[in-house]
User: What shape does this take?
Amino acid sequence: MKMQILSEQAIIEKLACSECFKATIESGAFVLRIGDYVPAVFTAIHDGHHVPSYLLSSMLVTEDQRTYEEDPYTGDIADLFSISLRVCDSRYLYDLNRQADECIYDEAWGLKVWKTPPSKALRNTLLERHRSYYRVLHALLSSLEKQFSSCVLYDLHSYNYSRINGNTPLFNIGTHYIDQTACEPVVLHLIKQLRSISLSQMDNRTACDEVFKGRGYQAHFINSNHPQSLCIPLEIKKVFMDEKTFEPHAEMLSKLKDTLTQALSSNAVFFADARGRLSLKQSSVLLKKGAKP
Assistant: This one.
């Protein structure tokens, strides 16, 4: 699929017409790819590392410090599915998992971010990128809900475990904004699928709300504006990469991609089947790796 560069309005218009496309928004802030319309979306809002060159001299945090708190390779996982929304900008510019009045950090993870506070003009530019993402996300979910009544969004993240004492989980599901009464079968099914993943010499413990509780703004936004749909924040332990050098453990990352694609595809089909929203054709498109519902 050829990459296009589109305005926000052009992207929203394509979504309204249910067009398949792959596009970078004009600002370069994120990439939306739709290979087919299915009721499952995969986002990587902290995968991005980009900071405009003219801002680098204004930042105190180094490139390595930024990368450490970002979520490398989550965008690669999201792109394995039919619909992916991958953010290119670093969360140190604005954090999409924080509401607008908190998304530009003065200090983050104990580090002062800026040499001097961003000007009002720069803050407005960054806030507009934050707003633009959520306008497009709203249009995407609205388009899917028009076709399927509801959809599931997997909010993919990864976390640094070396700074946490104890036996941390390989996968952590954040349930703060999940309606446990209505969605418990979907969550339990996902836990079962994730626990079936086997990575070489790695204990797989899957948990809910241990290292993160799923209180991010994206989950809040979906819960508030699209209550018929489901957002599942999923944190992956960074065992597939070196936390300090950021180099991937190639074999483990490849295995993680294969097995996680199957697990999440199966769960998405389970979600859709429970609502009668997925045709056989759409099921085969979603299950790219041959997972079984």
Notes: The first strand starts at residue 3 and ends at 6.
